[in-house]
Amino acid sequence: MATLAQLENQIQKLQRRADALRERKSVEVIAKIRVLMDEYGLTPADLAEAGSSPAKKRGRPAGSRQSSGTKKGANKSKLPPKYRDPESGATWSGHARPPAWIKDAADRTVYLIAGAGRKNGAAKKGAKRSGRTAAKKTARKSA
Q1: H-type helices in 41-143, by residue range?
Q2: What CA–CA distances, in Å, run from 67 to 22, 59, 61, 62, 105?
Q3: Contact at 8 Å (CB) between 111 and 87?
Q4: Would 62 be classed as within a structural domain?
Q5: Cut 0.70: pTM above it
Q6: Which of 20, 78, 102, 121 is deepest in the core (most CB within 10 A)?
Q7: Does Acyltransferase appear among the keywords (predicted)?
């Protein structure tokens, strides 16, 4: 088995060989670069100028509308609940994935909240209109 000193000597020899190989390769690479620079008429100043420009960053620019980590549509108003679980009191708007308490229900109308079953709140709008017209009629009669 090799001793620590022997292993360190091997490491030093390998490091010297790697440095020599790197030196030889770098001489070749520099020669290739000079040939290409002469071919394209480039100067060291051209290389410095090209290297100083920052690479284009990817993604949304800082300070843009949703770069603060907010989810898309987070500023929209929350939909009103349409279904309620009578046991827990949990509600669901009827959009997105259904919760576990209503997921397997054969008839979801059992869980409907009163007045929430109509599309676009038509029952509420109609009630307001009829209330206003009734108030106007009573005001006309009394006048």
Answers
A1: 44-52, 100-103, 122-142
A2: 45, 9, 8, 6, 40
A3: no
A4: no
A5: no
A6: 102
A7: no
